[in-house]
Structures are given as C-alpha cells and as structure tokens.
Amino acid sequence: MLHGKKVIVVMPAFNAEKTLLATYNEVPKDIVDQIILVDDASSDATAAVAERLGLTVFIHDKNLGYGGNQKTCYSQAVAAGADIVVMTHPDYQYTPKLITAMSAMIASGEFDVVLGSRILGVGALSGGMPRYKYISNRFLTFVQNLLLGHKLSEYHTGYRAFSREALLKLPILENSNDFVFDNEMLAQAIFFHLRIGEISCPTKYFPEASSISFKRSVKYGLGVLWTCIRFILHKRGLKRFRVFAEDGHVIQPSDGH
C-alpha cells in the first residue's frame, strides 16, 4: 500500500527465465501489494520461476503478442482491486527501484499516467540503446508531439504506471495485440485528456534483455504514424476509430480473463 492505495505490479513476460529473478529482487516489497506476471506462452521456465517467487501467474495457452499480454495484465490487476498499476518488463531493462516514485506520482492525485523515460537525462545511449533506435525514438517523438499537440520526452518506453481510473476509462481492449499497443495507449491518454507525468529512468541493453528486430522496429514506426493519423482524423470528425471512441471496449471491474 502507498497512501492507502493498493499497488500492483504487472509483468508482461515472454521467455524471461534468465532475468526475472534480478527484476523481482529490485521490486520495492514495502509498497507493492501484489505482482502479477502474465506468461505469453514462453518456451522456457518463466512461469515456474515466477511461481517459485510467489508471483501471481497467468499463462496464455498461445502467444497473444505484447499488446495481448498487456490486456490480460491490466484486466487482472483491475480485477484484483488495484488502485495503482505499474507495468515493468521482467527482462531487467528498466530498474524496478523507481516503482515507488512512479506510484507516488499517481497516489498524489496529480497524475493519471506516469512514464519512466529513457530520454530524460543522458542515460539512453550510455545504457546501450542502439543508435538507430535512439534516432528513430527522437524522430517519432518529435512527430508525435507535433501531431498530437502534446509534449513528452518519449512515447516508446515500456515502463508505465496508471491509476485505476485511467485503466477503466481508456478503450485499450480496442488496441493492437502487437508492439504498437503501447503507443496507442498513450495516444488514447492524450485524446481523453489524462494527466501524464514523466520520470527519468536509466536503461540497460544486454543480450538477455528483450528487443525487437530492425524489421519489427520499422513496422512499429509505421504503426506509430498510423496511430497519429487516426488520432487527427477522429478528433476532427473526419473518420471514426474505435480506439478513440467513447463507447470503445474498456476493461470492466469484473474482467479477469
């Protein structure tokens, strides 16, 4: 608990057996009430390691993709009564030590969404981020700030915290099951006027840390631009998209699939 609010950490996992323990060890147990790991049909012992550590584990019978994994993560966290949900990857790329700070920003009532930014500060490249990813991150972020009328240091971090109210408001079940899910979710947060805060976050790139290929990165970049186009068209009333619709499919408090 933090300021009387239940804090749940969710981990969308795929073949994270080698890095899960290191990630778990840095989770601040004094404020985190529960850790939920969703195993997206891993081929290694991710689920077994998670169960030994006492995590709440859900296993997909088939791989649903990064976005599909997060849909289960957030649905289960809401069903478990979370007031604050922090999503961190079990690949140890982001340090869980910042969970307390990110949760506090939500608990303060000043923010609905908090991002752990790899770009604030100077740690991205020194942490091993490939230069082409850094350049594409900066370019896409510049374009999105311009098109979405907002200002964030980056839109592409996988380290995020949400209030319960935010998760119940955003139609995230309409989003892609692929990597662009993250970006769609932030575009939705801006569209629905949620308050977004950022905190500087160091990052680590190493062989065991998950990272998408150059080809998948290009696909992701195109998906980001398409998200911006849909945002503009919907906002101007030129075309309707359910990812930005008031009646879009949202998580229900009783969801837990």
Gist?
With 257 residues, this protein is of the alpha/beta class. It has helices at 20-25, 46-52, 65-79, 99-107, 123-126, 131-148, 164-169, 181-191, 214-235; strands spanning 7-13, 34-39, 56-59, 84-87, 113-117, 160-163, 196-200. It has a single domain (7-244), classed as Spore Coat Polysaccharide Biosynthesis Protein SpsA, Chain A, CATH 3.90.550.10.
Which secondary structure elements does this structure contain, and how are they paired or packed?
Blueprint: E1 7-13, H1 20-25, E2 34-39, H2 46-52, E3 56-59, H3 65-79, E4 84-87, H4 99-107, E5 113-117, H5 123-126, H6 131-148, E6 160-163, H7 164-169, H8 181-191, E7 196-200, H9 214-235
Parallel strand pairs: 1-2, 1-4, 2-3, 5-7
Antiparallel strand pairs: 4-6, 5-6
Helix pairs in contact: 6-9, 8-9
Describe the structure.
The protein is of the alpha/beta class and 257 residues long. It has one domain (7-244): Spore Coat Polysaccharide Biosynthesis Protein SpsA, Chain A (Alpha-Beta Complex). Helix content is 38%, strand content 14%. It has nine helices and seven strands, in the order βαβαβαβαβααβααβα. Strands 3-2-1-4-6-5-7 form a seven-stranded mixed beta sheet, sandwiched between helices. Helix 8 packs parallel to helix 9. The longest helix has 22 residues, at 214-235. It starts with 6 loop residues before the first strand and ends in a 22-residue tail after the last helix.
